[in-house]
Amino acid sequence: MTDIIMFSMSASKVRLSRISFNCKRREGDGRDLFTVKCAYMLSVAMHRMLIIGHMFVNPIRRNACLQAWIILISVCLSAACYADAKGSERIPPRQKIVVTPEPYEGMPIALNPPTFRWPESTELPATVTVRSSSGDVVLKSDPRDHYYFRPLEPLPSGEYEWSFTDANGVVTGGGHFELSEDLEKWPVAPAKEAVNNIPSGHPRVHTRPEKIEALKLLLQNTENKDFQDFLRRHAGGKRPDLEPLSEEFFFDVRDDSYKSSKQIFWKSGDYSLKAARGIVENCILYQLTGEQKYAEYVKKRALAIADLNPWGLTTHDVNQFGNSRLVNALGWAYSWLYDQYTEEEREKIRNAIVDRCRIALLDAEAERWPWPMIPRLEYTKVEPHAWQFVVYHLSVGLIAVYGESPEAQEWLPWLIDLYVANYPWFSGSDGGSAEQVPYFLGTNLISSQQAVHLVKTATGLDLAGNPWHRNAPYFMIYGFGTGANASQYGDNSGRPPGGSGTMTARNAAVQFQDGVVASYYDFLLRRASARNTYIPLLEAPFELPERKSLADLPTSRLFSDVGLVFMRSEWEDPNNEIFMEFKSSTFGSIGHGHNDQNSFNLSAYGKVLLLDSGFYNYYDSPHHNGWTRTTRAHNAILMDGTGQPGSSDQFYGEIVHFEDTDDTTYTIGDAHRAYNKVDLERFDRHVLWIKPDVFVIADDVQSSEAIQYQYMLHAKNPFKIDGNVLQVDNEPAHAKVTFIEPTNLNISQSDQFLKPIEEIVRRPGKATPVPQWHMTAETPEKSKAQRFITVIEVYKTGDSNEVTVDVVESDEGVSVELSDGRKGQITWRD
After folding, report:
1. Residues forming beta bridges with residue 4, ordered by sequence position
2. How far apart are CA 330 and CA 310, in angstroms?
3. Is 587 helix (H, G, I), strand (E, B) or coil?
4. How would you label 107-131 residue by residue, b for 16+ Cβ within 10 Å and e otherwise?
5. Facing residues of 564 across strands?
6. What is the distance of C-alpha 727 from the center of its chain?
7. Which among 6, 3, 1 is positioned nearest to 123, based on CA atoms?
8. Dist. CA 404–CA 397, nearest whole Å
9. What DSSP state is assigned to residue 819?
10. Would you say residue 417 has pLDDT above 80?
């Protein structure tokens, strides 16, 4: 399917419409559609410029200006479409911005029914028509003033063709898609009906008015551990007034003199944290104890926040999280202390909530990030900050004032419908996250549990009907394990789960009555107590399910939606655990993911052996972009000295094989589409785990031109190099790395970064970076085809390590046999 963007002109604006047609495909190159996408983004920018030009020039010059721009852009688009027709097309499996209408053939579909999406260029309203393979119309939507349509009921399994009709009657073929019989189904009620269940009384944020008295009696008349723990944590201590802002931060982002910076972004976040501190906890303490000191603290804070300029330091335009955090705090304060305010005070807080929501949803300055969320979130699938906490926080504020604000009655159903249609943007249904494990826990899992509880309590609509929520705890279990050998992928990597993990594990164990997750909660509780525990507190009484042993879990698991394989030898004793992880993801390098397709990391006995190198001080810092995210910084392969591009959905990998038995795990990643500087016809990385302590990595690369190859490994300590054998030590863990093929590699190492540590301006509170070592094994000559076969033997200080590994390569693959009788087989793909 080739997409051409066409122009039409009306009296007020230039519109972009689309024509689609089929062309011959050849796998390999992504430059064609990438060019079209660039041209599309250019055309949107030009569209905005033309609107401005329309306002400021006379009609004759305006028409000449418009025609000139159209000719210029048409030339760009013609070149793009020529490249598309001449080259091979690649529509990515996961689009960051909807350019090709979804779903399309080859796109992963996680749920039945799927969400239908079309580009921003579409003239609204649009109507969706779905036809069966026999041509019968099985679904037709009402005209939609939105850029998506999510049916309420699942469709029968089968093959379908769909199209959409815009306001001008132009029909665009959306394409072919298939719904398999085993696809999970999720019917939902319309949000506009569900919001009618929001109670008229208060409190109604994460609870209902009728529940408060019964909850108060239960908690006060029993030895409820959660309540006692909550009192111990939050009832004491000082309750100071909010410190006023210093004069240097008395600005308005709408003024021409305002200039954004990372320092202002951080100051906004820090100040909003201080302003909101303790509001949620003191709201709950007041309702459950009746003590006035808690109410007074909340009132003072809420009224002080309401006095802040919504376009000032804490506005959405400066820091999305800062603004939404204050909406969340005001929503709690408004609803949980509703009777404590005068009508004038209620109006003041209500107006502050609505003003801040309006800026985030509609009025943010469109010329720069962050953009207004309406309608951007409808056609932009990858907007991480919005989905990390902002959507949830704004929903808290809108539920609090629902029925008292006409804006809330419009915006809240829009947010809930979008949550059903777009979440999780970073995964399918298997519970994983393309944001990687640390960000998954700190943002995706926590905020998703809060959103599920908020919406279900207020409206009865259960967002956890999406199976991702049920499976997500297992991404935490496999990604963090015992906590001593945690996943290194993505930003903020290698951290143990801490109190956030304990909290989310308990919430999930109770919500889904999952005995394995409950056992993991017990394990985490021995390491760190749960924090932010108001959800289980407000759901009392509840019971954790009967425990099921973690030891019964498979040692390996594939999260296919996000392209991650976790391999763990041990579940209960971190001192004896070996952990390897392997990544090849169809999400590419979006969000907090890195340019690391077909890479692996290795830890053992509580220590990192092969490292995901670099540091994360803040997003897009010189070091972050210049090293941490790059392919060179990972245990991956460079092609002719170049790696994979960053922040891209166009260049990606894929797990194409996974099998797990009692003796071995065998997986294959295909990353030939992940590189943009070389034309790869094949890049398969085979990972064979002969349990519990031997790994064989076999790489099969084919390039259209002769190139050199650089095999990268990273460690915390210097590599000991002896010919084609490397020794990696991090007491008490050790690894022997042997390059079986080729044996004539040029091996070197360095402790230097391309972006040196000295150039890093660290964000306050970030840890000081420590030295790391980077090994490069380079082929001496250029070639079109190259295979690497590498054996990694892991052992612990004091182990005899007397096992020998025999590797035999053939045209069919690689046979591996250990002297103790263990075996494994790698098979080359056709």
Report:
1. 19
2. 13
3. coil
4. bebbbbbbbbbbbbbbeeebbbbbe
5. 559, 583
6. 35
7. 6
8. 12
9. T
10. yes
DSSP 296-351: HHHHHHHHHHHHS-TTSTTSTTT-HHHHHHHHHHHHHHHHHTGGGS-HHHHHHHHH
- What is the structure's pLDDT at 247? 78
Q: What is the pLDDT of residue 51?
A: 39
CB-CB neighbours of 411 under 10 Å: 24
Residue whose pair of structure tokens reads 């002109």 in the numeric block: 9
Q: How much is the CA Rg of the chain, to the nearest whole Å?
A: 28
Rounded (10°) angle between helices 446-459 and 467-480: 160
Q: Nearest 5 degrees, angle CA 187-CA 190-CA 196?
A: 130
* Residue 25 banded pLDDT, cuts 50, 70, 90: very low
Q: How many residues does the structure list for the chain?
A: 830
Q: Are 206 and 283 in contact (CB under 8 A)?
A: no
Residue type, 397: G
pLDDT for 79 = 41
Quote the pTM value: 0.89
pLDDT at 199 over 80: yes
Tell me, letter by letter, the H, E, C secondary structure of 55-114: HHCCHHHHHHHHHHHHHHHHHHHHHHHHHHHHCCCCCCCCCCECCCCECCCCCCCCCECC
3-state secondary structure of 664: strand
H/E segment holding residue 292: helix 292-307
Tell me which residue has tokens 């039945």.
Answer: 112
CA 278 to chain centre: 28
CA distance 735 to 729: 7
pLDDT in tens, 589-638: 988 999 999 999 999 999 999 999 998 888 888 888 999 999 999 999 99
Q: Supply the DSSP symbol for 715.
A: E
The three-class DSSP label of residue 746 is: strand
Distance CA 498, CA 617 (A): 20
Instruction: Report DSSP state, residue 405.
Output: B
Per-residue pLDDT tens digits for 495-516: 778 888 888 999 999 999 999 9
List Cα–Cα distances, 586 to 18, 31, 106, 444, 672, in angstroms.
Answer: 26, 17, 11, 19, 12
**Is the bond preceding 384 in cis, omega lying within 30 degrees of 0?**
no
Name 702's bridge partners: 682, 785
Say how many Å lie between the first and final Cα of the chain, rounded. 26
pLDDT over 90 (residue 67): no
Q: Quickly count: other Cβ atoms within 10 Å of residue 163's Cβ.
A: 18
Residue 28: band (very low, low, confident or very high) from pLDDT cuts 50, 70, 90? very low
* Per-residue pLDDT tens over the stretch 308-336: 999 999 999 999 999 999 999 999 999 99
Residue with tokens 């863990």: 733
